[in-house]
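Input record, target 12 of the design panel.
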């Protein structure tokens, strides 16, 4: 199966952005300053090659942030992460018993030897009142039996999704010969459980929000979200990954593999977790949220994936600019940073430049950047792994994202059991920084959402059930795209 690192190799969000402090200057990227910055980077890179030492100081940077709300957690001996932890002062109100809705999660996942993946949803139909769209009307639940081929063999490199089955399009199709006759499956997974989904309010003391950034970022990219939800009474936790922000930066590449970083976040999760936890990840951070949701299904109540891409396994790319020596990457860092500004944001005005300049966001060494990219190896995180998740998941996609095609998030929505895909028209890869009000409102609606089982009592059961957001295109086919602007409550 095609590795997701190919996406991250050109997806320098995280990536190209992160490389150099000098790339984000207060002089508004004037031509003279860019030339001076690039010359400085080249000279430092030459010095790095001659001396054999990295031009970047691989140590935790000092933070100018106030100590209030920030903690330093030693996840392993000598491995310290900076964590922003805000516990608002509000009256503790526990969730009232009996509230919420129950979803019968039953599906059969079959993988055949030719790589074909067939997902059969067998649970009861749940008439879920999904997130409010711009017109305020709830979207109905849909019935679907998903039959999907291996993504790497069936889809072109552009990420074009497979044709939507007839059960989604609503059109009558002539009966075809059975496609699965006499085939012996390679692997079969059956999921059969009931999941209670409740509204998570800021006044509930058993709710915690975890925010996980991607490559090259820091907890500072979540500034608008952390302030917004802490004011609403939510307990929020946002760590800096190793080598990012003010966390320690080991000088060995093995410290930045997916598994090493995942264990760091496991330690953070176990330290701060409440009874109902919501994980919010961006880009590469989505993979860590998926890992935690799979490992702790009883504690993870909901998940938000922001521009995370398709449900494919991670595998390092052999033909990537990030395989170049560290000193060469350091020389190229001003160019990479400028390329990210052009591709990571829908607009490239003073506001976007200021967002990149603020705080310690996008401030990692070339060594850490290279190690992060080469360490993206996670073969377990394939389509089956994602299909096994029973937690409700909100997918947020920026329409102008040049790093993650919308087809990848559509593919993710097809694979997941309970997935709601929302597209924000004005956003790009860094949509939570570009459109904070829209993202905050959308996330808050998802936190408060719960299934409505009362209207399901009189509705007959159907053969399959899968809750997804979909609209109809000009050809009458279902598209997993919803309105970009949620209604403000």
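The sequence produced for target 12 reads:
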């Amino acid at each position: 199966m095609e590795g997701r690192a190919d996406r991250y190799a050109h997806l320098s969000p995280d990536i190209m952005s992160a490389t150099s402090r000098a790339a984000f200057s207060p002089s508004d990227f004037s031509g003279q300053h860019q030339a001076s910055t690039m010359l400085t980077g080249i000279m430092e890179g030459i010095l790095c090659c001659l001396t054999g030492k990295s031009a970047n100081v691989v140590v935790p940077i000092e933070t100018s942030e106030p100590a209030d709300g920030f903690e330093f957690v030693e996840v392993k001996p000598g491995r310290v992460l900076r964590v922003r932890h805000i516990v608002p002062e509000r009256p503790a109100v526990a969730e009232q018993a009996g509230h919420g809705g129950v979803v019968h999660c039953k599906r059969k996942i079959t993988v055949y030897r030719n790589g074909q993946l067939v997902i059969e949803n067998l649970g009861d139909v749940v008439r879920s009142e999904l997130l409010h769209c711009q017109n305020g009307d709830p979207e109905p639940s849909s019935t679907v039996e998903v039959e999907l081929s291996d993504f790497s063999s069936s889809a072109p490199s552009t990420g074009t999704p497979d044709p939507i089955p007839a059960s989604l399009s609503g059109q009558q199709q002539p009966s075809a010969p059975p496609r699965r006759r006499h085939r012996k499956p390679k692997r079969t997974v059956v999921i059969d459980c009931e999941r209670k989904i409740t509204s998570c309010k800021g006044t509930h003391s058993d709710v915690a929000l975890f925010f996980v950034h991607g490559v090259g970022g820091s907890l500072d990219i979540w500034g608008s979200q952390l302030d917004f939800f802490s004011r609403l009474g939510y307990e929020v936790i946002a760590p800096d990954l190793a080598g990012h922000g003010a966390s320690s930066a080991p000088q060995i590449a093995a410290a930045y593999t997916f598994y090493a970083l995942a264990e760091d976040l496991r330690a953070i999760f176990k330290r701060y977790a409440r009874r109902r936890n919501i994980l919010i990840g961006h880009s590469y951070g989505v993979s860590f949220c998926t890992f935690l949701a799979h490992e702790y299904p009883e504690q993870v109540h909901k998940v938000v994936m922001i521009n995370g891409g398709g449900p494919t396994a991670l595998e390092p790319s052999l033909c990537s600019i990030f395989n170049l020596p560290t000193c060469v990457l350091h020389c190229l860092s001003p160019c990479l940073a400028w390329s990210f500004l052009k591709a990571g944001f829908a607009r490239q005005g003073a506001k976007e430049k200021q967002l990149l300049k603020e705080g310690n966001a996008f401030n990692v060494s070339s060594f850490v950047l290279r190690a992060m990219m080469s360490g993206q190896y996670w073969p377990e995180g394939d389509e089956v792994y994602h299909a096994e998740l029973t937690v409700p998941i909100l997918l947020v996609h920026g329409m102008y994202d040049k790093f993650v095609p919308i087809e990848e998030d559509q593919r993710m929505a097809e694979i997941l059991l309970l997935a709601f895909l929302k597209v924000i028209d004005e956003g790009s890869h860094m949509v939570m920084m570009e459109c904070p009000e829209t993202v905050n409102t959308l996330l808050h609606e998802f936190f408060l959402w719960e299934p409505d089982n009362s209207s399901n009592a009189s509705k007959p059961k159907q053969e399959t059930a899968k809750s997804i957001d979909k609209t109809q295109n000009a050809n009458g086919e279902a598209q997993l795209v919803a309105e970009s602007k949620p209604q403000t409550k």
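DSSP finds 15 helices and 14 strands in the chain.
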